Here is the input.
Amino acid sequence: MVLASLCLGRVTIPFFQTLKILFSPVLSLDPDWSETTYSVVMDVRLPRILAGLLVGAALSISGASFQGVFQNPLVSPHILGVAAGAGFGAALAILFFDNIWMIHLISFLFGLASVAMTYALSRVYKMTPVLMLVLSGIVVGSLFSALTSLLKYMADPMNKMPAIVFWLLGSLNHVSFKNLLITLPIFLSCMAVLLLVRWRINLLSMGEEDARSLGINTEALKAVIILSATIATASAVCISGIIGWIGIMIPHIGRLIVGPDHKYLLPISMVIGAAYLVAVDTIARTALTTEIPIGILTAVFGAPVFAFLLRKSQRAS
Amino acid sequence: MDLMLECIDLGFQYRDKIVFSHISFQALPGRFCAILGRNGSGKTTLIHCLNHILNPLSGRILVQGRDLASFSRNDIARTISLLPQEQIDIFPYRVLDVVVMGRAPFLKIAARPGEKDYTIAEEALRQLNAQDLSHRNFNRISGGERQIALLARCLAQAAPIMLLDEPTNHLDFNHQYHLLSTMGRLCREKGISVVAAMHDPNLAAMFADEIIMIKNGRVMAKGVKEEVMTEENISALYDMDIQKLRRNAETFFSPRDISLNSQL
Here is the structure.
């Protein structure tokens, strides 16, 4: 998948040449390629594909974790308002700074801030019941969506507004090796934490009373999982914009393959999500002469696939 | 006989509404102790306080002489298991995957159940003659089979104290008797202390050794079944006129005049 994606694009590069370019830093090979071809593979496509793998894996594992913790197979990793918050942050940064680093940083911070607001809002009696969390997420999410609309309304319609709209639709276009290197440790550590505690998501999904009677400190475990999944999602959103449907759909495909046990579900979701996003991104940049925003494609593919999965899982169970 | 669980002057309230207060009783190993009371008398809340799912506001709970407040969540789960009243059936887990959850207090935070844990879970199902359930979908089996599966989870948890929260709710006649007699057998064979919140005084009379009656948030009567299960006590407990019927060694309770007592 990754190799195919490296070869395909506006310029199609032969398979073996791509392989050679890829290994050229470690092996000493005769360069039979032009500098442009090298740059297309190594500087443009490779970081973009790596970002696709990371974002797809992060959104899928976060989605699977959120669905388990919230005992609801229909929630997405954006449920607590991460996407809305990050989108607002990005719009703000585009309006005032127009610098890619500031956009990433501010959208990441607002993504986290919106989840912190959701969490604070949902606390009653020193507990955070799942229903309150979901409802608070909707409240905070609509607030930030409204504020984003306000910014769009105020933005310069020739210049800034298209930039905001395009960012909100999602794209892996602006990824470079530098911002990958910065986000990589965040991605990896969050996903590692989720993988480590993954079996305990089974216990949380049986309800809090059950989990507590089985010796789980539910508040602490929930906080760790929500925090890791949120940071992973916010990192994904800040480098790729809002890519919907992956986080909700991939765990369902995973469940069809390995069943609901999170011990197997989390790793398989990561792998499928990573492969799926790279595939969709390849289509996004090859199908038309201009790039299609990937958020549109994931939704266009996602909705019918998800409808099909829902019907199939209804019949299977 | 050594004390397993001792509950001293326990009290609980939600905001300013007192649910119960001054509850004291003891549970012994190998004895089945039933808590009786009307709806809303605080039976479930009491059960949840006993394993600190809810924190009691006053009083103490001693387990083998140690104060439960000094236990970690994990220590509590190794000592006290709970058969819950309601189950959540969102994800279609296999029964075996549900039973193996009982191993959680023995696994480190980042660990996943291994072969040994699955063997223990299968053995727990076998003890309940339910090994056939192992690979079935937990959401697609009957209510009675689910209770059996969750009872197997309690056995996998291997705790010396077992709490049952209205275990026969939603069960048909057959499953009620099957579940409670299995429970009684395990309690005696393994020396487990069982504390069960129950609805039906006849089932309690049949399977329990000790009875605790709770009315208006206080212990109304407690002691061995033969002393406590009297017409007067049960009539007072349920606010209706109840008579005791005898057939050989068995006793049953039934309203004296159903038409007179229907205005509850």
Chain A touches chain B through 28 residues (CB under 8 Å). The first helix of chain A runs from residue 2 to 7. The two ends of chain A are 32 Å apart (CA to CA).
